[in-house]
Amino acid sequence: MTVTDIDEAKLEAFVGHVATELGAAVNAALVLIGDELGLFRAMADGQPVSSEELAARTGTQERYVREWLASQAASGFVILGEAGYVLPPEHALVLADDHSPFAMTGAFQSANAAILARERVRERFVTGDGLGWHEHHHGLFHGVERAFAAGYRAFLVAEWLPALDGVVERLEGGGSAADVGCGHGISTILMAQAFPASRFVGIDYHAESIAVARERAAEAGVENAEFHVAGAGEIPGSGYDLVAFFDAFHDLGDPLAAARSAASVLAPDGRCMLVEPLAGDRVEDNLHPIGRFYYGMSTLVCTPGSLSQPGRAGLGTQAGEARLREVLQQGGFGAVRRAAETPLNLVLEARLP
Known about the structure:
This protein is of the alpha/beta class. It is 50% helix and 15% strand.
């Protein structure tokens, strides 16, 4: 290739694109700093604030806050006006309120933690070995909990469970459910709170996460949920009305064994529910901002995690509906249907033949 082969307009456009990427990469760390220090929350009233005022509100040093505010204004996260810097209410819902259905600071937390594994993941590119979930920085576990909790609070009880055939009625009447790969237990606890007559069992191979789940349940006053350290291929108990995998199925080393285990512990008229990232079946279907984030996290976290476990299936974060259906059906399920979806989630319902 010679200089004469270069389209200067395309080159300049791509240089601008890369400059935007570099700013976004740096700002991911700055957003998390702002979250951890309460800077966004201190601006959530929507009123203009100076760097001196924000520093005084948060017990931080003005010189650092001044630079941070400028970086957030350059990134479009806050707005600089004549009276000072403003966090618009729409932005506050995303950055300053963990109970908002639009909260995304957990995603920044998990992304920052995932990036810390860069050197070890680079080694795995050469060796082919995996990197287990338990080998990541603890910020990943807490960030994932925060990120997923927003969607679970908004949709799990209100929309996803009602979309399953007969599950709500059975849980209202005193049924049982298993939550496989429950992590810190947010999904298990939400279901237990909504259906106090039923019994819920959360399992995860990560002992530290199970310890946190038990603490979360105790804090919430939930007495009808229990948590166990166990693998997805050996789900404890039997006769469940529901076996659920919340954003966990694609992380498994042997999802086929997990599907077979789920089928074996379901009641005859029970249901298996998969909540997975919404993704198309082809790479070209997922070439958009959300797909970009999912592919990035898949490369750093989910695929290495799967490759660290027996089975080494490596489904990836964007496995797609067709592949998920195939694994469920190979695992012993009959009909599999898309029961619900959100802009970020795909919800599949599987039943026994």
